[in-house]
Amino acid sequence: LTGAQDGSVRMFEWGHAQQITCFRSGGNSRVTRMRFNYQGNKFGIVDADGYISLYQTNWKCCPLTGTSPKPYLTWQCHSKTANDFVFISSSSLIATAGFSSDNRNICLWDTLVSPTNSLVHAFICHDSGATVLAYAPKHQLLISGGRKGFTCVIDLRLKQQQQLLQSHDSPVKAIAVDPTEEYFVTGSAE
C-alpha cells in the first residue's frame, strides 16, 4: 500500500508489475500515515487536512465494476492536520494524533457510532500538535510524540495522561514498543 504527496493511495501485490487498485486518486490532500488493522482486512489513511478514511481491503470486487473502492468511513478528526493513528484492540476503536485549534491533539474514536458522536475522549497534550502514536495493547497504553520533542504516555483504561517526558529537542517522528512492552524507543527529526 502506498500513499503519496499528491494524495493518491495505491495497492500493489508481490509478483505484479502494476498496481492492483487505486483507492484514492491524486489531487487530494497529502497522505500523512497509512496503517492496516491487526487482521489485515481493513486499513486507514490520515491526511494533511485532518481527515481519516477507513477502507476494506477486499479490493477484488472493484476491477469487475471498473470503479475505485470507496472508504466505508471518513470524517475530520483534527481541525488542522492529522499526522498518525492506531487501531485499538478490535479495530472499531481508533486513536488519532494531529493538530487541532482547541489543542485536543490526541483523540479516541469509536467507529461503530455516528461520526457526530464518535469522539470517545480527547486529550489536551502536545500544544503545538502530536506527530506520532504507538499502542501497547497488553498495558493499554497510548504513547504519543509531539512537535516540541515531548513524549506522552496515556492510560486508556483510566483515560488519563500518566507521564510527559522531554525526550528530544526536535519533533518526535517515530515510536516503537518492544514485544514484551517493557520498553519503548523514540526517534526525532534530529
TrEMBL record:
Cross-referenced PROSITE patterns: WD_REPEATS_2 (PS50082), WD_REPEATS_REGION (PS50294)
Keyword Ligase in annotation: no
Domain of life (superkingdom): Eukaryota
UniProt cross-references to SUPFAM superfamilies, sorted A to Z: WD40 repeat-like (SSF50978)
Coiled-coil segments: none
WD repeats: from-to residues: 165-190
Keywords, comma-separated and alphabetical: WD repeat
Cellular component, GO annotation: RAVE complex
GO biological process: vacuolar acidification
Protein name according to UniProt: DMXL1 protein
InterPro entries noted in UniProt: DmX-like/RAVE_component, WD40/YVTN_repeat-like_dom_sf, WD40_repeat_dom_sf, WD40_rpt
Entry-linked Pfam families: WD40 (PF00400)
